[in-house]
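In this section we walk through a basic example: taking a raw amino acid sequence and producing a predicted 3D structure, encoded as discrete structure tokens. The instruction is simple. Fold the sequence below.
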Amino acid sequence: MDISVVIPLYNEDESLKELNDWILRVMKSNHFSFEIIYVDDGSGDKSWEVIESLSAENKNIKGIRFLRNYGKSAALNEGFKMTSGDVVITMDADLQDSPDEIPALYRMIKEEGYDMVSGWKKKRYDPITKTVPSRFFNFTTRVLSGIKLHDFNCGLKSYRSDVVKAIEVYGEMHRYIPVIAKWAGFRNIGEKVVQHRKRKYGVTKFGMDRFVKGYLDLLSITFTSRFIQSPMHFFGALGSLLFFVGFVIAGYLAYAKIFLAAYKMTERPLFYLGLLAMILGTQLFLAGFLGEMISRSSNEMKKYHIKKYVNFKK
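The resulting token sequence is shown next.
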């Protein structure tokens, strides 16, 4: 199969039929073999009924329905597991991403050899309250990750199939899939300017709080990517350094007490600083040791409660 299109959605029943027809036109005009996987993230409207209707008309259209709302990352993660295409395309269900971009994104993977291609909404139809924070957010992510992309959060992306099978997307980490892919060893990451359209139906599902969560997630993914397999490398090194500093302070105070005998050790603030450094150093070292044990013994991925499937072979 050429292409798997994964579309996470939440309360987008108005746009699904139009989006689906558009994708089908693109696939047929380019003679792609394909599947479309809709992941209903616990919608409260008629989204699932629309997906079932579309699936009944075309066996290439498949659906996954969550029992409740888990978030976009969970929807993408479950969709990735079910893909069978050589190239995986992700897009949002609100018609702001254009399916006409699919052929070019497909060719960049198959012919130009990219592991992953991220869309760049160079011209956006969003209010300034979204565009300005987004630019600052993308700048910070570029600096910390070393990945030269302009729009990390663009939902329109393409991947080699082995990329989506090798990564896990959880929490709010869908913003950082390029970073996750890079740390998984897929470093040939490209970018393509894509069309951004005004929202035609419904309302956005994201508020200003996503930027606060975004930076916390960035710190989290940066830390876990570097140290998840060996937490002792971080906690152990920092703990050892603090303990050494505290030990040196204690040694100096002991020397001064024995050979100078001019004061009591407990009367000097330096004593308490050294004691605190040694205690914190010991605690950090133990945290690294425990983290190492957990990391080696726990490798189960998070499970999501799926309510229904449609058109998947059991």
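Looking at the output, two observations stand out. Residues 255 and 261 are 9 Å apart (CA to CA). Residues 269-297 form the longest helix (29 residues). In the next section we compare this with other chains.
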